[in-house]
Amino acid sequence: MKKIALTLTMLLGTLSASNATAFDGDAEAGKAKSATCAACHGPDGNAPVNMYPKIAGQHADYIYKQLKEFKLGMTSGGSEGRMDPVMSGMAMPLSDQDMKDLAAYFSSLNMSAGTTPEDVVEVGKQLFKAGDAERGIPSCAACHGPRGNGTSLAKFPKISFQHPEYIKSQLQKFRDGTRANDLNGMMQDIAKKLTDKDIEILSKYLGGLH
Length: 210
Description:
Cytochrome Bc1 Complex, Chain D, domain 2, 0% strand, globular
């Protein structure tokens, strides 16, 4: 918990400097380059298959960061960045400007709404908004915001309306260490404290959070 609090403090101190760098992706150029992406993520960025993430309306900075790290995962043989058998290969031929353009395009679209099952609302809301102090689990809202919209400057992603199945898979990957491209290991530290039930509830709760 102390590590997470320290990271957040340091992050807040650098946001003003980060804000000075404008994102220079071209959404129109990104649209022209997005045909291949549509196969998995849908033509409007709302993936029709729930194992793939919705990327419509996601922060451009976050999309750009992930694309760079997918490419790094491939070029480093998985020792750095984020390795995925599909996305790392897709990111390989992309130039830095391609990534910025695609990020700008998909961030300009609207993410489709989801739903939250009634039986997970109470526990899901507690975990998301307050965490669990006894187990050292911080509030999800502390980084991702009360509505799960994240923040572009800190590169915390929008997680509301995301496919529950995708959120579940990513939390499991953070927990077992197969995904390790989070800032200072924050998500890995948190995910290791989550039970299978916690992950199931949070994933379903976030699907309809708005």
